[in-house]
Design brief:
heterodimer; A: alpha+beta; hypothetical protein PF0899 fold; 2 helices; 31% helix; B: alpha/beta; Rossmann fold; 7-stranded parallel beta sheet; 35% helix; globular
Chain lengths: 83, 223
């Protein structure tokens, strides 16, 4: 759960607090030797992303052989039309 | 609807590692060695520390940062032997200490007056392996009442540890624990692991552990 909270903190640092409700997807890279159980982390993180200030962002995880654990990207909905 | 993608590539541990590096600098400035004690619950970390503080206390200036989750039990036991005892602020249910908690706890100690700091981590062989607490080395404690295949079940912990204490050796005649097998399994995941065999209860094997701690106190960079 502390890792999930840290991922939320990184997200906030990247987009700013007021933008958190518009985060649509959080991309993660999870290494097999990172000591993290992917399903467990996804469960914790999704529970946080389903509640304010988030509004139901998705978790997108890609697995990797190493021991890395990273936030790789964030998708933010800026609203309006694309023209 | 315009969805914007922001590339981040930030390591989740980056902030913790930054704080851990800061702790390492602070300890290094004062020549203090820090040992991060990790184990499953009930391996005897607290008893090992109690005896160490009691018997080596007159010689070395030792402090303990403890991360007991729900109770003050460990802290109460250790407080009998040292005044340099700090509780890390651990929220209920947390499975490990992090560098922020340890960094804050260390502010309670006069580092210039110390030789050694023990960080008694939360009893768990998974999560604490991932968190750098600015320690000189991790010491994994496991006892002969556990399976000798612990190193194979929790390889990451045995890989990141530099020292292993096999504790409760007084119980060896009563349990099927195979010491040679345990050592072989541990060396399979970490060939460089150095072992100590102790009974913190009877004192057996403690002298070699004390010699090791004395050597760290004399030459902190060696650990």
């Amino acid at each position: 759960m502390s890792l999930a909270l840290e991922i939320c903190r990184i997200t906030e640092e990247q987009v700013g607090r007021e933008t958190l409700p518009r985060v649509r997807e959080v991309g993660l890279l999870v290494g097999e030797d990172s000591g993290v159980e992917p399903e467990n982390l996804e469960f914790c993180l999704q529970a946080l992303l389903d509640h304010p200030p988030f509004e139901g962002a998705r978790v997108a995880m890609s697995l990797d052989p190493g021991d890395d654990l990273r936030v790789t990207y964030l998708e933010v909905d800026d609203g309006g039309s694309t023209h | 609807m315009a969805v914007r993608r922001i590339e981040v590539r930030e390591r989740v541990m980056a902030k913790n590692d930054e704080l851990a590096a800061d702790i390492r600098r602070r300890l290094g400035t004062h020549g203090v060695t820090s040992l991060n004690l990790v184990s499953s619950p009930g391996s005897g970390k607290t008893t090992l520390l109690e005896r160490t503080l009691q018997e080596l206390g007159p010689e070395l200036r030792m402090a303990v940062v403890t991360g007991d989750v729900q109770t003050e039990n460990d802290a109460d036991r250790l407080a009998r032997w040292t005044e340099r005892l700090v509780h890390a602020v651990v929220t209920g249910g947390a499975c490990h200490l992090d560098a922020r908690q340890v960094g804050t706890a260390l502010h309670e100690l006069e580092l210039a007056d110390l030789d050694l700091v023990f960080v008694e981590n939360v009893g768990n062989l998974v999560c604490p392996a991932s968190w750098d607490l600015g320690e000189t080395a991790k010491v994994v404690v496991f006892s002969v009442t556990e399976g000798e295949d612990k190193p194979l079940k929790y390889p990451k912990m045995f890989r990141v540890a530099r020292y292993a204490v096999i504790n409760k050796t007084d119980l060896l005649p009563y349990v099927p624990f195979d010491v040679d097998k345990a050592v072989a399994f541990a060396r399979e995941v970490n060939p460089g692991l150095e072992f100590f065999f102790t009974s913190a209860l009877t004192g057996e094997g403690m002298e070699r552990w004390y010699d090791f701690l004395r050597s760290l106190a004399r030459a902190p960079a060696r650990a």
